[in-house]
Amino acid sequence: MNASTEPGAEQRTKDWWRTSIIEMSPGVIRYRGYPIEQLIGRVSFAQMVWLMTRGELPSEPQGRLLEAALTAGVDHGPQAPSIAIARMAATCGVGLNNAMASAVNVLGDVHGGAGEQALELYQAIAQRMDKGDALVQAVKQGVDDAIAAHGKFVSGFGHRFHAVDPRTAPLLQLVDEAACAGVVSGRFAQIARAVEGELAARKGGKRIPMNVDGATAVVYAELGFPAPLARGLFCLSRSVGILAHAWEQTQQGGRNKGPIPREYIWSYDGPAPRDVPAD
Amino acid sequence: MNASTEPGAEQRTKDWWRTSIIEMSPGVIRYRGYPIEQLIGRVSFAQMVWLMTRGELPSEPQGRLLEAALTAGVDHGPQAPSIAIARMAATCGVGLNNAMASAVNVLGDVHGGAGEQALELYQAIAQRMDKGDALVQAVKQGVDDAIAAHGKFVSGFGHRFHAVDPRTAPLLQLVDEAACAGVVSGRFAQIARAVEGELAARKGGKRIPMNVDGATAVVYAELGFPAPLARGLFCLSRSVGILAHAWEQTQQGGRNKGPIPREYIWSYDGPAPRDVPAD
Amino acid sequence: MNASTEPGAEQRTKDWWRTSIIEMSPGVIRYRGYPIEQLIGRVSFAQMVWLMTRGELPSEPQGRLLEAALTAGVDHGPQAPSIAIARMAATCGVGLNNAMASAVNVLGDVHGGAGEQALELYQAIAQRMDKGDALVQAVKQGVDDAIAAHGKFVSGFGHRFHAVDPRTAPLLQLVDEAACAGVVSGRFAQIARAVEGELAARKGGKRIPMNVDGATAVVYAELGFPAPLARGLFCLSRSVGILAHAWEQTQQGGRNKGPIPREYIWSYDGPAPRDVPAD
Amino acid sequence: MNASTEPGAEQRTKDWWRTSIIEMSPGVIRYRGYPIEQLIGRVSFAQMVWLMTRGELPSEPQGRLLEAALTAGVDHGPQAPSIAIARMAATCGVGLNNAMASAVNVLGDVHGGAGEQALELYQAIAQRMDKGDALVQAVKQGVDDAIAAHGKFVSGFGHRFHAVDPRTAPLLQLVDEAACAGVVSGRFAQIARAVEGELAARKGGKRIPMNVDGATAVVYAELGFPAPLARGLFCLSRSVGILAHAWEQTQQGGRNKGPIPREYIWSYDGPAPRDVPAD
Fold first, then answer.
1. If we measure between CA atoms, which residue out of D53, A152, B94 comes closest to residue C249?
2. Among positive and negative, which fits the CA dihedral A149, A152, A155, A156?
3. What is the distance between the alpha carbons of residues B243 and B253, in angstroms, rounded to a whole number?
4. Would you say residue C4 has pLDDT above 50?
5. What is the value of ipTM here, to two decimals?
6. What angle do CA C230, C232, C236 make, to 5 degrees?
7. Closest Cα to residue D76, out of D159, D155, D175?
8. Residue A5: what pLDDT?
9. pLDDT single digits (tens) B72-95
10. Which uninterrupted H or E stretch holds C196?
């Protein structure tokens, strides 16, 4: 680059932040090229999520399928750490935005990453099939790899509270309908069911049913989302429940509400009382 | 309460967390009484937001109006602190959930509270009218009170970047249409426009146009949301842009990306170099 | 400013971030003018906290008094929302930094702001005395104002768990000793004790003893810290306990640990089961 | 366990939270067995950090060495994402606690994990030596493994801004002095220097000097801290700078301060303007 074409300081500063998501000038806001005034009222919130994260507007049926997955994960009650945190935060004198932040923050690999891991599993199986493996063989190998990487629990299957997760069947049914209508291929629903079958076979026939993470991962895979966005979408979805609980707790009142009733002090198993040694 | 009806320890523990949002038993999840399997695929995401935060399902047109407001606030580019934080976080080796948390967290009174404050203003004006004040009088008094409480900038009006905020007109048009259709009363659109008129009058005719916060507050007021939820809904809305930017930045790469290019060190105006005094 | 002296883009970018805290060039780091290599090993951590937040190095005795206050607030057990959040977060697959963030975040007005409010009260009383009010009169008026602003609980006095807060006496004793040694004036210890006396008088002699927030606020006031830093210093202090608990929980293990044992589902008081209306 | 010894609901609730860090009863607080009133004013803040995270009080010289490492990492200026986030947050209408949270949150693997990774490397080398490897051989193998696991940059060595990190030499000198005095073994300082030598040899003699993360990891390793706490201790340390910058920014004022000056809009490289397709 010679001196005359070298970008000036102003340009270097602008280039420090580069995006293909949003373009603005005074009076103008465009997302992915579309003017905001054309989007408002004409696309669904789920279509907007898709446009922002992936760059193109989905069709209306694609948007509805995404919407179903977002609906499925909104809440799992005050025993989930994310929801409990939102409620406790609301009693500590912070704003709803802060309560939401502390709560969304814990949706990490264990609490919020199961969908991402399930999607990775499905995609890995699909890639084996693209290279010529039969479904059964690809599933066996994929499950082996998942167990080797993450331990004996295969993300997306089994639930410590629900013997059968009530969110799975309606999601799969919507995927099946969308596959019939040509909206999606149905390939990942097939893969996920085969994983469920493989897991049952390994347990001597005892079913370890697909849970909400496994089922939403089917939706996201069918719709072409990359795996890390499965976690991001779950964060959006759960944010709704987080907000609802933070708001309900705000209305219930309470100050510095802890996890258990005040009359129950925790269990202590440390050193017996002792004195600080003399200097 | 006599001894025999006094709740036992187990009951006291259960009662420590009390909610009217979600009921669960193995295999069953109900939100506000509705089984999850009936909600998935049949209600829009915006209807779900409404159900969770307010307790009842809105009509479809109400849901669409809420959806328009949620769509309007998703993003305002990398110069907004929330978006910049999401992008910087994404380069620091944290998950998308963490990037979202750090970013949503800053949607406080200044960055995320304008809609809440605008809604409070509209509601205060409406209450004056309920007590018999004329619109003009109620607006004058409401604006006086808002300025006394929050300073000369009236939240929801004027924008430091957009002379005219492109998100306002389409939102108000949707409210007007919904008012014509009997979905909402149109009362708060009238109030907000009167506030805009009052502000112009105080500036000798110079218009200080309603911005996205003022316009979404109209939507939320028309739909009956309490003021604090205006902030919560904005957090949900902006979370979409936050996620999109965190994800885009992840794909762009970068490690520990700071706010300005590395060749520009910040400006220092502290003490001149000096030695730590001898002990 | 004429064209020739108008700062260029590079300068404007540098000026966007301006600080008197830190100056850097390759191989050089100076905090408040002092080279880092002279500070390491020669100042205490508390002196460093003081230097960074206030601009000058404190004397060693001032540093020790600050250290005592920082030590007093590190932990109040897993029933405090901040600590519970740290522990729950640690089971969700996030890093220690994330667990600390979710927890520190809730140290808001209610959980973390009592010291700040107590300090404001002491300073308001001192200002009245500077204008000529007698101690007794200034205290009465200050307490009246605090109650009017924040409600019947005066921040820094009384504790829902400890009839007598065991952290108060040792802190006040250190302040008294420092006052005898001329390190501090002792004025704010006198004011705080007078507030305690006034509160007891209003309760017909029933003592509402100064708690840890009231006592650390005495230390911070004696050392000349502005009120908002009382909250900031408490955040630093409690971060130690937060880290310790997050780390202990990590070692204990657990996945998605919620606030109460899994066999206790929460109490539900919402609508009875119902069907989603037909479209 | 038979029915009569099975714990009741109250006990199960208490056992849900179990800790060896803190024991409390009304009027009593003990950390690791030591009563709080004996700790306040008698131990340094660094000793308290050690007691809380590890269970025993360190000697005074151990505490001072820890203090030096905590001092070294407090701040690296507004170009570091953590500091920039703290400053931007402070202009968004959130509390100092929230600003600290958003900032500490990003101290993840890339921004806050280098010390942890360096400590793991040193420990892995030490373990090889314990099994009989010579220093040179253990270092070669350890570096190979680190590069295989984390890529070509070995955490703790090299700095993109400082050719020589000014924090390294004073920290190593303190470790050497402590080794002479028998406070620590000096083993990890030797290992770290051997790593530095190995890296230079691989670069044909070009030195890639140990940075602050590599040097604080030496301190933490000498003092016996487990690797994950290196990150936790860095979070405590950097929290000081984060607080100082958030507070300075609060005093400077500003509302919704973004990363770059307002006259520089970011660079856009997305789709050209286009219309939303007709429904």
1. D53
2. positive
3. 15
4. no
5. 0.96
6. 115
7. D159
8. 54
9. 999 999 999 999 999 999 999 999
10. helix C187-202
* Chain B interface disruption, residue of D159, D256, D260, D276, most B CBs within 10 A: D256
Instruction: Give chain B's length.
Output: 279
3-state helix/strand/coil string of chain D: CCCCCCCCHHHHHHHHCEECCEEEECCEEEECCEEHHHHCCCCCHHHHHHHHHHCCCCCHHHHHHHHHHHHHCCCCCCCCHHHHHHHHHHCCCCCHHHHHHHHHCCCCCCCCCHHHHHHHHHHHHHHHHHCCCCHHHHHHHHHHHHHHHHCCCCCCECCCCCCCCCCHHHHHHHHHHHHHCCCCCCHHHHHHHHHHHHHHHHCCCCCCCECHHHHHHHHHHHCCCCHHHHHHHHHHHHHHHHHHHHHHHHHHCCCCCCCCCCCCCCEECCCCCCCCCCC
Phi then psi for residue A30, to 5 deg, are -125, 130
Question: Which is more confidently placed, C147 or D4?
Answer: C147
For C62-82, the pLDDT digits (tens) are 999 999 999 999 999 999 999
Confidence of residue B5 (pLDDT cuts 50, 70, 90): low
Average pLDDT, chain B: 95
Residue D1 has pLDDT above 50, yes or no: no
Residue B135 Cα, gap to closest chain C Cα (Å)? 32
B241 vs D: CB within 8 A: no
User: 67-96 in C: which are within 8 Å (CB) of D?
Assistant: 67-68, 70-72, 74-79, 84, 87, 95-96
Taking 70 as the threshold, does the pLDDT of residue C40 lie above it? Answer: yes
Distance CA D190, CA D136 (A): 11
Six token digits for residue C9:
């883009």
- Please report, for residues A77, A114, A178, the alpha-carbon distance to residue A217 in angstroms, rounded to integers and kept in the order given: 21, 9, 15
pLDDT for D165 beyond 60? yes
pTM of the model: 0.96
Check pLDDT > 50 for residue D153: yes
Phi/psi at C182 (5° precision): 80, 10
Residue D97 CA to residue D100 CA, distance in Å, equals 5
Predicted local confidence at residue C279, as pLDDT: 66
